[in-house]
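Hey, I was hoping to borrow your eyes for a little while. I'm sending you its amino acid sequence along with the backbone structure tokens. Take your time with it, there's no hurry, and the full record follows here.
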Amino acid sequence: MNHQTKKECFKTSVGGQALMEGIMMRGPKLICCAVRKPDGEIDTKIDPVPARKTWMKIPILRGAVSMIESLVVGYRYMMYSAQVSMGDDYEEEEETAFEKWVGEHLGEKAEKILLTGAAVVGGLGAILLFTVLPTLVVAGIGHFVELGRWPRVIIEGVLKVAIFLSYMALISRMKEIERVFRYHGAEHKTIACYEAGDELTVENVRKYTRFHPRCGTSFLILVVIVSVFLYSVLPWSNAGLRVVLKLLLLPLVMGISYELLKWCGRSDSLLSHLVRQPGLWVQRLTVFEPDDSMIEVAIEAVKPVLPEKPEEGRW
């Protein structure tokens, strides 16, 4: 059984993201990406944390902005990890005509533009799948069966949760994604070990829980749940209008979910435990037990980003 064997000493803002054969960890000042290379060695890349704008301190607004930033930054490190983990096999892949054109005409800006575009397209795809599709399905059902407001809201909410859980369950069966989810577990266990004040060794990290309240999966399920409640007040008179209003309110949904996630990460109240519980349940689909080699990568990723003064990285 895996469990936390030592009481949590403090709560930290240090967090990360699982990658292809690696992990990205983010501290108060630095970001470190550690990736296992084909020869078994661990490659590390350290970057400064982007400067925070003043308006990033504004509650709700910072949540929507952080979500977009996380998509772009996360996609960039995911591509980097794929390049490092594949080694020569990655370099042998021939550039497409479009990639060559972008490189020739945009130079150094090309990579950032392509990565940002890919992240935006991925985000839009998720929005269409989890926000637009349930509305259209319920509207279609309404053409054949007379439904009141609350039956529509309930059906839409159930559909949204079912699509989300089914999607997570399906992708977890892919071999490459299954390994990413195991690195996800290594990330969580390493942070739990650090928060307990234990020395960061493979033996120590192995003992800790793979579930964490500040997980990206928990954020996503909070987005789904908050959207169900917030969208319940929107009109059903026109499916197109409802979709437009839902898209306009999406930044607010993300902002509220972000604040709830931060609160769950630093609070030990009974209410915070109730709010975080759905996310911890869903993590069983996206956070798997790692092997020791994955834990080694997580430790290499987190050590460079830990604050010199412990209080700098705590809530």
